[in-house]
Model the fold of this input.
Amino acid sequence: MKILNYIVLSLLVASAWVGCNNSESLVLDIDNNSIEIDAAGGTRSIKVSSSDNWVASASVPWVTVTPANGYGCRECRIVIDSALTTEVRTGVVRIAKTENSSEFKEISIRQDGVDYSITLDKPEVSIDNFATLDDRHLDIKVLSNVDFDIKIPDNVTSWVRADDYDLTLDRGVRPREVTIRFNWGINSVPQERIAEIEFVPKEESGITSDMLARNDKLTIRQNAAEEIKRGTREGDSVALLGMARTLEVWSSSWESSGERMENWDNVVLWEEGMDGYVDSLKGRVKYARFYMLSTKEGIPYEVQYLTGAEELQFYSNVNTFQLSLSTGEYICKLEHLKRLTIGAYGLTELHEDFKNLKDLEYLDLGSNNFQTVPDMINPQNFPKLHVFKMPNNQRKLIYDLSNNMATDFGGFYDETAYDGERFGRFPEWLLKWTADEKNGVAGLDTLVLSVNYLQGSIPSFEDDNTVGYYTEQDIINSADTLPRKMLTVKRVMPQLKMFTINLNRLTGELPEWLLYHPSLDWWDPSTLIFTQEGKDELGNLAGFSNQPANLNYYYEVYTKKKFANGVGDDGETDTSGK
Done:
């Protein structure tokens, strides 16, 4: 059997040699004398048959032959580069005998020119209605030899946005690939939405759309949102779960607990007997708290469905000092909300519709990054507001403002920044926010502005005719607790029960209206008023030039006061417990 296999193999080898080398006079031959190829180029194989040595050469630099020489039968690879222009180009490969160059064969090559085109790797994409912010994007690879603009319809720009890109066309009209990132927003409605995005040649390129052999469009289909039934207990629970998901609340166990909503932590439902209760609110959310968050956006869209809520709290976001967020539009739809806390969230602005929350009585925007006190916070927009807190709006601690190169560091710095001649104006309108029954204004009884970068002096209002003095009627109404000295003191926010402005960069004199305010002794002024910190932009050490050592001067005027600190009218400590 081995002998038989050897004989067969020998015959096959002999046959192959005869087929290629039948006689010494065998002429040079090739199996193909023309090649047509598209603009992308590529590799083609040619079989060369010869009884002698041969050499191959190309007439154009965009064609190479491998191997370039040989003997007998051999397969050659002809490599054709991608085209550089839009015109057809031609070339020739010649294969000649080495000893007789007059005996040769030629292969003609014809290559199509490059068509202008804009091609997408994924012309149609489907996306979810929701993802966390870091995952709300899609990348599209675009192969193009035309610089282009991305045309997003006006009705789509609210939820689809393209990042900047750079298409480098440094290879003539050879297409180059660029990856474009499209960012998308959450779909909050229970209907699918579609974006048709066009790629249009730039006008300066001189190329028009009708010159393109291919011009892909991008279609983005976004899934519908889960329907939230407004005004229902079921809708409230879905909204809470959606908000916890969007805010990435670390401590939320609402969904995994399997408990009914009335047993959820940090949620209070309306029940019979509660103030403000009506039958339609029974079992719905009255109060909810979200804390230990991780978000880079405003309050989630689901909040708009909590139409029965009276109080909401959002605070303790991660990396707050790095963020510059707006409240967003959705929280602004809760026109009957009474108490709102958005603290340590990363806010630098309120949405323009925030003024729609006219029922607000309590607003805490502390520990954010505001450069100014939002001027929309005023008695005209919020007539029922009586508690306003904005402490600790500092991105970073800057002890000495005169030796500082940082910008955008919060703390209401822009309010009183030094302009080269004087400090800016203190937000005086807050100190004029008094009760006005005629116009339905409650007036602030709590104002907290501690730990910011306010500079200059606290306004005295001595030259402000819009601020009057205490009157005889005020003394009568106070049941003789208001001393007659107050007839010479400006009547500034007499209803204030709590006022804190410590640890700013304030200097100058304390005004009389503050030193003799009816509630000064309840404010713990030595800690929450008089104590300032650091230096202002002129290098002045913060603090007041007339800061009192104690409140003896005050009690000498208010002779009928019973003191919160246990000191009686005679200056002795009251130990009676009465």
About this structure: Confidence is low (pLDDT under 50) at residues 4-19, 21-25, 566-578. Residues 2-20 form the longest helix (19 residues).
